[in-house]
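I am sending you the entry underneath: sequence plus fold tokens. Let me know what the token row says about the fold:
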Amino acid sequence: MGKYKWTSNVRITVRDLAGNILEQTETKNMIVKVGRKMWRDLLRGTITDGKIKYVDLGTDATAVADAQTNLVTGVYRHAITSDAIPADDQYETTCYIAPADYVGWIRELGWFAGVGAVGLGTGIMVARVLWSRNKTNIESVDITRLDSIVEG
């Protein structure tokens, strides 16, 4: 039996009202300890809901740390807009933030899962990433996260 690796990449695309790309960033995000424990507990059967349901936006740029269980300064939550299975070993979630949905600084993003994920900062924070932009009401943001679990 081989070892398995869970990787996660994030692509953030900012568009103007006409759909023109203003910024596109690709980065890796940290799957934090509570997120990895959630997967363990899914395998054990002690929890049954590990679905990523929300992306929270925050305004703090504190470095990402493995022990984090929440954003440092969460200010807005948005439901996952769509999800897909692009390959056998992958899961993709997309969150679309419309121009009027949120206006202000975004410096941290967190993905939240589980049955308790109902309001801002609730549920299990699976991952966190830093990204900085002062979002206006004339731009949208697409946040796409691709998880891969591969042998090796």
